[in-house]
TrEMBL record:
Lineage: Bacteria, Bacillati, Actinomycetota, Actinomycetes, Micromonosporales
HAMAP family: MshB
InterPro entries: GlcNAc_PI_deacetylase-related, LmbE-like_dom_sf, Mycothiol_biosynthesis_MshB
CC cofactor note: Binds 1 zinc ion per subunit.
Essential cofactor(s): Zn(2+)
Record's protein name: 1D-myo-inositol 2-acetamido-2-deoxy-alpha-D-glucopyranoside deacetylase
Chemical reaction(s) catalysed: 1D-myo-inositol 2-acetamido-2-deoxy-alpha-D-glucopyranoside + H2O = 1D-myo-inositol 2-amino-2-deoxy-alpha-D-glucopyranoside + acetate
This protein's encoding gene: mshB
GO molecular-function terms, A-Z: N-acetylglucosaminylinositol deacetylase activity; zinc ion binding
Family (UniProt): Belongs to the MshB deacetylase family.
Region (Disordered): 298-319
Source organism: Micromonospora sediminimaris
E.C. number(s) listed in UniProt: 3.5.1.103
UniProt cross-references to Pfam families, sorted A to Z: PIG-L
Function: Catalyzes the deacetylation of 1D-myo-inositol 2-acetamido-2-deoxy-alpha-D-glucopyranoside (GlcNAc-Ins) in the mycothiol biosynthesis pathway.
Length: 319
């Protein structure tokens, strides 16, 4: 079935490495923009085949067993997208083109289909096809360390930035590229909160700057307050049940801080001009700040069929 996508004046493209990354890192932002009428496109680079399974009865799906976890996670991701209100989801190059590489230094990095070993220009070419179709003004991915050093996150960064470079050569560059980030002040508050907790995710860390994803507050460009969507983010995370156990510290902190924790997400600006902001560091409150709205027909008309053969996922009949 070919899905027809209606493009709007504001178009946001996110590139994530595995199913569940989108919900944990940018779920509220995605839900916020989807709810306010922006076209949100999610590109996931792998099926997450090497993930740790937290549902005992599904342990046989693991890579070392039946190796069926990736297929199961397709359904989890479809449910998460539905919770976030995102109807345009693609797997880079098609589902199963690239495999989860596992953590850095493991033998799984050497798998023939491991995303970590993907040809950069080939993978970027698949993403470029989507950029040509959707013409996003704003793109989100990870920084050059993949936020915390996972090889697939690093590769997602490289592929995204190369695709943006190729798009620029065709006059199709997005106005802005953001990288996910966590302000130092927020991490310091987390360290304080969890100091005496039994499920302390920061155990052994005394200084927030020791964390690979700690970003000085002055380097943050945008703070997206999507607290109205915190419940959607939590529901999307719960859809990834194989990866995020019900006892996860993520839900623990959500129970203590609620909407503030689930609903606020931060970004640095990698490319483009920063728009108007507020506060001591001029943080933007809108990723489209300073971006002139472009008519949807600039992307080839209001109704665009996926030229690359990609099939956006819709909540009512995923695939």
């Amino acid at each position: 079935m070919t899905v027809v996508t209606t493009l709007t004046d504001r178009r946001l493209l996110l590139v994530h490495a595995h199913p569940d990354d989108e919900s944990i890192g940018t779920g509220s932002t995605m839900a916020h923009y989807a709810a306010t009428g922006a076209h949100v496109t999610l590109v996931t680079c792998t099926l997450g085949e090497e993930g740790e399974i937290h549902v005992p009865e599904l342990a046989g799906l693991a890579a070392a067993e039946a190796d069926q976890l990736g297929g199961y996670r397709i359904a989890e991701l479809a449910t998460a997208c539905a919770e976030l209100g995102v109807t345009d989801h693609r797997f880079l190059g098609g589902a199963g083109r690239y495999r989860d590489s596992g953590m850095m230094g493991l033998s799984t990095n050497e798998h023939p289909r491991a995303f970590w070993g993907a040809d950069l220009d080939e993978a970027a070419g698949y993403l470029l096809e989507i950029i040509r179709e959707v013409r996003p003004q704003v793109v989100i991915t990870y920084d050059d360390n993949g936020f915390y050093g996972h090889p697939d996150h690093i590769q997602a960064h490289r592929v995204t930035m190369r695709a943006v470079e190729l798009a620029a050569a065709e006059g199709l560059a997005p106005a802005k590229v953001y990288w996910t980030a966590m302000p130092q002040s927020v991490l310091e508050a987390g360290l304080t909160h969890f100091a005496e907790a039994s499920d302390n995710p920061f155990a052994g860390i005394a200084d927030a700057t020791e964390l690979p994803f700690c970003t000085p507050d002055e380097e943050i460009a945008a703070r997206i307050d999507a607290t109205e969507q915190h419940a959607a983010k939590e529901a999307a995370m719960r859809a990834h049940a194989t990866q995020i156990p019900a006892t996860s510290w993520l839900y623990s902190i959500a129970g203590n801080f609620g909407a503030e924790f689930m609903g606020v997400e931060y970004f640095t600006l990698a490319l483009g001009e920063k728009g108007p902001g507020s506060g001591p560091y001029g943080w933007e409150s809108d990723l489209f700040a300073g971006v002139a709205a472009a008519a949807s027909d600039a992307a080839g008309g209001p109704d665009v069929v996926g030229a690359s053969g990609s099939r956006p996922v819709t909540p009512a009949g995923h695939r």
